[in-house]
Amino acid sequence: MASLVAQVPILLLISFDGFRHDYLSPALTPNLYALSQRSTVGNMRSLYVTKTYPNHFSIATGLYVDEHEIINNKMYDPTLAQPTFKPSTTAREWWDPHNRTVPIWTANQLLGDDRVSGSMMYPGSVTPYQGMVPVHLKPFDTVRNWTLNIDTVIQWLTDELMPANFVSVYFDNPDHTAHIFGPFSSQVHESLLELDHAVGYLMHRLQAEHLAQRTNVIFVSDHGMAQVSKRVYLDKLIDTSLFELYGASPVWSLWLKPNAMNMKIIIYKKLKRLARQNHFQVYKRNEIPQIYHYSKTPRIGHLLLVSDEGYDIYANASVDWTIDSTVWGNHGWSPTSEDMRPLFMATGPAFRAGYYHEHPFPNIDLFPLMCYILELPLRKLPNNGSLERISDMLATEELYRLTDSVVATDNNHHNSIGLVPVILGGIVLLIGGAMCMTCVASCARAKPKIDYDIDSLAPGLNIDLEFYLDHAGNKQQQRFGKTTLAINQSTSHKRVPEEFRLLLHN
Length: 506
Prior knowledge:
The protein is α/β, with parallel strands linked by helices. Helix content is about 30%, strand content about 20%. The protein has three domains: about 1-65 and about 100-225 and about 335-410 and about 455-490, Alkaline Phosphatase, subunit A; about 230-325, Gyrase A, domain 2, CATH 3.30.1360.180; about 415-455, no CATH class. The chain is built from 17 helices and 20 strands. An eight-stranded mixed β-sheet has the order 6-5-7-1-8-17-2-18, sandwiched between helices. A four-stranded antiparallel β-sheet has the order 11-12-14-13, with helices on one face.
């Protein structure tokens, strides 16, 4: 197995929960920022709702939220034997209700030859899909020993009998800290430095094990984080004994109690009227904007309540965990909000170096991208993503490997990958025929246009170890952002809110 796996591609999917896109900067995350200068960075968008479990599972499956049906971190489904879902729930009836879900770690083992997957605490990976779980698996653990976790991942990659070629890795920070103290707090700054240290250590270990040159690493987050300071309590506005709320602020599924089922229209109209002056919105399922892809599953409930950004909403004060806070953090609002925008950065031999993908793309596009890198037959894996939207991220030589065997699938049709020289050459041959055979043959031999320096192609993960050792061992220098890196004024650093920038330089 070890000799065979040496021939297959290696891919790491690293997720930092709640990592805002503008945390990527020389002062806040110097190792990540240094790596980003020779990586592809992109304008990725989360799906609605911008919560942890829905988005992690959309990344892993390439499915819209109302397709995989993990609609929130907490849910209710009266049709199931175990009707309530919480983050620790692993029952397959919740994660794979129709027995057709194939996350990327399952696809790698199911469709690849001699492939082994690993998952380090990634949401949803403990549940079996298609009768299997990752060969290497560690369930979620609240102990945050990032160095030990990275060492474990390296052990999986170098295992003598079952070496992994795909591993998903989950970090529950900065989300955990930002919820408590707010996204622009000194505590979050310290959390970011710890994560950045972990990134430097990961790069160091990959190089030490001679894996860097053939490993692709995709760094993502599930959502951003907004600063919150205001609350809405529904019990001050309406009789909350008529319904139950499932989910997490700012988005709740409202389920009417049996004795209130005949009052649905009355309750809806009252909430609709109250919403105008109390900073929230209410929807029937068929009123949820179609762009969110959030209305198909009945797990949404009878009504959906959403507070305005900057406000949290609760049934009453007794369930408000922020009751003693003046400022805190939360997420769940529209993916179009810049505060909800997540991290995307990819590095390794498959990706362009020093490249920014400016056009927004949904995180479901990562699934066909990962399948492509792992050389898996995407046509066997129905999903809503599109490799065509992000094919410009790939290094030039990778464009030649794109063929019609890689197909992005949505609910209604199959999208063949565009910008593929082989396909375009074939089309020209069919149309031109014998009329211009010489010209066609010449065009078929032509390389695609390259609009960047060939020397900028990603050679692999070659992070500067001297830089890593310097910054990993000098937190005080990092803390005040006094690095020797030249700051690229076009980066998102300038978008960090003023109060956070003041914190860094005080």
